[in-house]
């Protein structure tokens, strides 16, 4: 089983143990403000392979590379003016930029799925210090079995992957609760590849451009989280529920009561006051709790498709998609 180190109790031990495990080519669980990540040295193909094997992740699905700061990111990728402005405004934070790789980069092709671009993020808090101490970027998808509900606490990681990895660094619950927003500048246009923890309007304000959204799912996987079926619990997922069937689990939003809620296997509310930030922070934890109730179906009441609601609804649509 994985060793769990409480970062707040012993930060120095967490740094030393994390660097040692990463240098040994292992994949470890790291905390970020979005969700917990399964991290390994982005320049080491054997270490990256451990990520794919641990998650059971398709190798055509690229990994986000986490950097300590903008200077480190500039060593591996080319920045256009819009991407640089976004980086300066929102890093560290829940924004991933897909950028052209620099020639001769040390990031291994296994981390980028062979693409000539790389998704880069600078996380807040302890993990930025860990990357700085380690001295190399970390490839780090979410720390969960591929396609399943993302982990927002060390306990989530331990329950899912604890028998497969040597180390979990515990910083408490993730404060944002959904993965980063992923954007790409292409031919002067700004494209949203995945909605996430940074609302689109904030990005548009800084960029001075509208974020273009795809009308349909692209056949090309350019960034993590673009698979049609993803973030899925074991139970089936039913969206836009205004009434509950007997025995279903309910995950509600806002103050309005859902008809039949008294018959729920478990009833949870992402935010009784209708706060989308609170809802995002609770989303994956509540999905796991509802799944553990044994209900065959988890019903979600409607959530506004604005601000962070865009990211929440994206995750729910993928969770509800047909599974292969």
UniProtKB/TrEMBL annotation:
| Annotated compartments | Cytoplasm
In its UniProt record, a GO molecular function of this protein is: L-threonylcarbamoyladenylate synthase
Q: Name one Pfam family in it.
A: Sua5_yciO_yrdC
> Which reaction is this enzyme known to catalyze?
L-threonine + hydrogencarbonate + ATP = L-threonylcarbamoyladenylate + diphosphate + H2O
Q: Which residues form the YrdC-like domain?
A: 12-198
Explain the purpose of this protein. Required for the formation of a threonylcarbamoyl group on adenosine at position 37 (t(6)A37) in tRNAs that read codons beginning with adenine.
Q: Which family does it belong to?
A: Belongs to the SUA5 family.
Q: Which NCBIfam families match?
A: L-threonylcarbamoyladenylate synthase (TIGR00057)
What is this protein's name?
Threonylcarbamoyl-AMP synthase
- The organism named in the record is Rhizobium viscosum
